Amino acid sequence: MYRPALRGVRRVSGRGGLRRRGTDEQAQERAAAGPPGPPRTAGPAHRVRGPLLTGFALAGILGGLLYGLRTWPGGPERHSVLLLYATVAATGAMAAAPSVGALGALLLLAGLCQAVVLAARNLSLQRALPASHPVGYSLQYAGSGIGYGISASATGFSWRTSGPRPPS
Question: What does the alpha-carbon distance between residue 153 and residue 82 come to, in Å, rounded to a whole number?
Answer without folding.
Answer: 27
